[in-house]
Design brief:
Elements (H helix, E strand, L loop, with lengths): L1 H13 L4 E5 L2 H5 L8 E6 L4 H14 L4 E5 L9 E7 L12 E6 L2 E6 L2 H16 L10 E3 L5 E7 L9 H4 L2 H4 L2 H13 L4 E5 L21 H20 L3 E6 L6 H7 L4 H4 L12 H17 L5 E5 L9 H18 L5 E5 L14 H13 L8 E6 L31 E8 L11 H11 L5 E7 L22 H4 L1 H12 L5 H12 L4 H21 L14 E2 L9 E2 L2 H6 L11 H7 L9 H24 L5 H36 L2 H27 L19 H12 L2 H6 L2
Parallel strand pairs: 2-3, 4-6, 8-9, 8-15, 9-10, 10-11, 11-12, 12-13, 13-14, 14-15
Antiparallel strand pairs: 1-2, 1-4, 5-6, 5-7, 16-17
Length: 738
């Protein structure tokens, strides 16, 4: 009893009043070094929703070790404090607001956070390790600092959606379900994402009845109340989990009802997002926009901030006119609100009057000047957003272009004081097959090291909504409900490493073992990393720009088809298409001209060999995992995706060989090389057929993005076969048409 009193006094002296103390008899802690006995832990917590949320996760994890938690506000003075959590920003300034320090000693487990969110992460870290099998009294000391302060998910909403498609509209019911949002937000906080950005052409229609323009709202009072319950619930649950929420839209849109009532902004009726603003959006639209911005902020106090895109429906306007429009609408509306807000400023998508995308240093400097002038009611740094390698971030960790072209250094030279840069890591390439490559994320984060102007990153897609799982076939393998759960490893890798890139592979191995059984983690992670490198190689080798220019997973794009289908990258286009990452790759046409590469650059033939080696290793590891037995249907589903990526990699490799041989044959009239090309492309067809079988084993034929036709690898087989016929064509005929 006396020992417990001494320990209690010591702990009380070391930590301040705002603490959580998890108490248990010392005998139960130290006498059970190898076998834990059932104990009851008394928890003392301040009245904090964020910490209560984390304690709930800890309690659930402790139940796995036959440990129960009893919460109370007043501990008995003779009880020892085995776990103490404090929130102490001054003391923890070295690790930042989102960081924590955990010390495990004979005096107990002590967790200190730089904020409530940091303390929450410290508790969640303990809960995660317990779930992975670490005894709660054996958790090691750790200091964690958030690499980026801004770790966001880009979530495009299915109403007033960016594009019109059944692929988007089918998510509406799911996205109206607060149970879905609770699960999604839980996933976010467990993976250390701290920002949810919600995107829609004009979401205000579903959120408020404008005081001075009630005709803009199509809902009766009961219907609007249901919508408000949804939004209020999302923002409140996010705040409870330490997640900031931002609402972003695409500028000059009004509700369809407002458009018809006042004969303005007619594109708003059918949500046509590209075109000229012209004279159909004058002062009335400016006033409407300004007033709904103010009213929205006042009716939703838990909403963190807003954001805009300087592009859509601004065709025909000069860059200065676009910035002036923002001043008159969004910035004026925020200034008039009765509370402050944060802001995401998507950098201009065009440096001239067009909508398609251009860049210039002068436009960058003018935009920076506008950002630095912002003051009234906009709090914290303004987050200036750019698309990393345009719409295809899953390519190279190095930056080669943003939306519109090459980015100048105007936003960070000289160093900014009013804003920070965030990179949107767009995913328009991987929707069906599972992906997770920790090394790639670490490489990307490493490229940002030492750049104090970088605030973080946004992860997400323009037209793929991770809500309704319409891709997976029903069956015993489907043990999840929602789409984001099928790509659980994607979110774990991105979120955890944006928070702390020093997290070792052992952590991801433990995650895999938690799901698929002890002993599987190490080999499975190696296989997963090798398989997930395949699409990165392709998107680095085959340069993509806007969304539809490249769909890596399908070896295709979704342009130039009247029926809304996809355009396969046939052998002729494949040979000539430019690479994105010229530091590491060279396209086939340029390689054949010189038959040599610069230092550090892989030739197409070397890339083919690497793909085959990596896929062979991954396939060997997958085969060994299957041979161990005990592969559940769910595990089978995930292993099949790795095998599909390997089939894709083998197809890619043979197409590279076939392309080099065919380009050589055409350049030199070499019949031998032509036969080599045909043989390689016939081998490629075998691999493609294997990919088609594996890809369809557990998946439906989904309509992806804003296409109107279902996608399948089998559906593109005729195009794969056509490559062989093109390679067989007489060389004289080919040369005569070049």
């Amino acid at each position: 009893m006396a020992i417990n009193q001494v320990l209690y006094s010591s702990m009380k002296h070391m930590f301040t009043a705002h603490t959580i103390k998890i108490l248990a008899p010392l005998a139960a802690l130290f006498a059970c070094a190898s076998v834990l006995q059932a104990v009851e832990l008394t928890v003392i917590a301040p009245d904090s929703p964020t910490l209560r949320f984390a304690l709930g996760k800890l309690e659930s994890a402790l139940q796995r070790q036959s440990v129960t938690m009893k919460r109370t506000l007043n501990p008995a003075p003779d009880q020892g404090a085995e776990i103490v959590v404090t929130v102490d920003p001054p003391l923890m300034a070295g690790v930042g607001a989102d960081g924590f320090r955990r010390v495990n000693s004979r005096q107990g487990l002590k967790i200190a956070g730089g904020s409530e969110r940091g303390a929450m992460y410290g508790l969640l870290d303990v809960a995660e390790q317990i779930r992975m099998g670490v005894p709660w009294n054996k958790i090691q000391s750790r200091t964690a600092r958030a690499q980026f302060e801004f770790r966001a998910i880009k979530f495009n909403l299915p109403w007033s959606a960016y594009r019109t498609s059944p692929a988007l509209e089918q998510h509406q019911d799911t996205c109206k379900d607060l149970r879905y949002w609770e699960a999604f937000l839980d996933m976010m906080v467990e993976n250390r994402f701290n920002v949810l950005s919600l995107w829609s052409l004009h979401p205000y229609t579903y959120m408020i009845r404008p005081k001075n323009f009630p005709e803009a709202c199509p809902f009766n009072d009961a219907e609007l109340a249901e919508w408000k319950k949804l939004w209020t619930g999302i923002f409140a649950m996010a705040k409870e989990r330490g997640i900031e929420t931002y609402l972003l839209n695409w500028n000059i849109f009004v509700s369809p009802e407002f458009s018809r009532a006042h004969n303005v902004a007619p594109w708003s009726v059918n949500l046509s997002h590209i075109g000229k603003e012209a004279d159909d959006a004058g002062e009335l639209v400016v006033r409407y926009t300004r007033e709904v911005v103010t009213q929205l902020l006042e009716e939703y106090p838990d909403l963190t901030g807003l954001g805009i895109t300087l592009g859509e429906r601004m065709g025909g306007m000069t860059p200065d006119q676009r910035r002036d429009w923002l001043d008159q609408t969004f910035f004026s509306g925020i200034a008039k609100a009765k509370r402050p807000a944060k802001f995401i400023y998507r950098a201009p998508l065009s440096a001239d009057t067009r909508s398609g995308g251009t860049t210039s240093e002068e436009n960058d400097r003018r935009s920076r000047a506008q950002i630095e002038s912002l003051a009234n009611n906009i709090t914290g740094p303004v987050y200036v957003e750019f698309k990393h390698n345009w719409s295809h971030a899953h390519s190279s960790p190095d930056l080669f272009l943003v939306h519109g072209g090459t980015l100048s250094d105007a936003y960070w030279d000289p160093p900014p004081t009013r804003h920070k840069v965030v990179w949107t890591m767009r995913n328009e390439d991987i929707f069906i097959l599972r992906w997770g490559q920790p090394d790639f994320v670490r490489e990307f984060v490493h490229r940002q090291s030492g750049k104090d102007y970088v605030g973080g990153a946004i992860i997400g897609s323009e037209c793929y909504i991770p809500a309704l799982d319409y891709i997976t076939k029903e069956g015993p393998h489907k043990t999840w409900r929602w789409a984001f759960e099928r790509q659980w490893f994607f979110y774990a890798v991105w979120g955890q490493l944006l928070y702390d890139p020093a997290i070792p592979d052992a952590r991801f191995e433990a995650m895999l073992e938690e799901r698929f059984g002890k002993g599987a983690g190490k080999d499975l992670l190696v296989a997963w990393k090798l398989a997930s490198r395949v699409p990165l190689h392709f998107a680095s080798f085959h340069r993509g720009t806007w969304d539809g220019s490249l769909y890596t997973e399908g070896f295709s794009s979704w342009i130039d088809r009247d029926d809304g289908g996809r355009t396969f990258f046939g052998i002729d286009a494949f040979i000539k298409h430019p690479v994105l990452d010229a530091k590491r790759y060279v396209n086939i046409a340029d390689y054949v001209k010189t038959n040599r590469v610069s230092e550090g650059v892989m030739s197409p033939i070397e890339l083919a060999a690497k793909l085959d080696r990596d896929c062979a290793t991954a396939m060997k590891l997958v085969a060994e995992l299957r041979a161990r037995g005990g592969v559940s249907p769910t595990f089978d589903c995930e292993l099949t995706d790795l095998e599909a990526w390997c089939a894709y990699g083998n197809y890619f490799a043979e197409k590279l060989r076939g392309g080099v041989a065919l380009a050589t044959a055409r350049a030199k009239g070499d019949l031998k090389q032509q036969r080599v090309a045909v043989a390689s492309l016939e081998k490629a067809l075998v691999h493609w057929n294997r990919l088609a079988v594996l890809g369809a084993k557990f998946n439906e034929l989904p309509v992806l993005s804003n296409s109107r036709q279902p996608f399948s690898w089998a559906g593109l087989t005729p195009a794969v076969e056509r490559d062989i016929e093109l390679a067989k064509a007489p060389l004289a005929f080919i040369n005569s048409t070049r």
